[in-house]
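Dear colleague,

As promised, here are the two records you asked about, laid out in our usual form so they can be pasted straight into your sheet.

NAME FIELD: protein one
SEQUENCE, THEN STRUCTURE:
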Amino acid sequence: MRHNTNLRIRAASASDLAAIEALAVAAKMFPKEQVGFLSEQFNAAARGAIEDACWLVMEREGAVVGAVNYAPEPYSDRLWNLYFIVVEPNSQGQGLGKMLMEHVENALRERGESDARVLIVETSSTRQYEGTRAFYAGLGYTKEAVVRQFYGPDDDKVVFWKSLVAGVR
């Protein structure tokens, strides 16, 4: 197990897009032919089409080993959505995903309750994502909803919820 030294979380730039897409493919989140939507989302955020969207990367010794994207959920009351998180497969299980999640949660808490009350995360119900669901539960997220057949006939969307406000459950 590697020590989590020499890690840096920073704002993502357009030059990181190929690495972010490669991580998503390597982690088997999306097939190569479908991963281009990540660049589309990044570019939309960069030109201001997705207000307050944040893309971050985690680097180890200059190499991108993780990435995350979150933004306010439209038509909600101070609710934010973690749209994407990935850690390179060889680094999974070393606490990098937890570090990214804590960074996001802390950044949102710093915005204050007047801007950020809740963070939700959505994932698949398939067996492939059992570890992902356990990861969110282990970080204190509550399974809040299931939208049946969202991703396909046998693939529901599972929504996890966490308060960003102290003392609110």
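NAME FIELD: protein two
SEQUENCE, THEN STRUCTURE:
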Amino acid sequence: MTGQRQPGWLRVTDETPPSGAPTPSVTVAGAVARTRATLFDALTDALDLPGHFGRNWDALADVLADRLDVGPLTLEVTEAGLLLADEPPGQLGTLLDVVGGVSAGAREPVRLVLRDTPQRLPALRDRLAAVLGGCGVAVSPRA
């Protein structure tokens, strides 16, 4: 995914998730999603995906689009600096492409919230900027 600015559906933060968020959300720990295979496993569990989920990027786009037909969704990744950390950088870019593509065509909004500690956010921002075509990645300020 390339572009001049951070997409509106992406949030990078060190804030604690708010309780009682109005948009249904699912949480995946980056520590258990260091590879594409483990990310698909974690999303299968978190989203209660069907057994026929193909565990590839196209299948993920399809199931996210289907899920958004019933309402908005926030995907939260804790320890986000570890997300796809054992994969080539392009895999993180592909994940962002999938979420961005689904966001562009969905009736309901999807958000990807990447949470980590203040100490690990600079490295995460650098990884994101590299796959977002060098654009700056803002970290949401604390309330």
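A couple of things worth noting about protein two: The radius of gyration is 14 Å. The chain is about 35% helix and 15% strand.

Best,
R.
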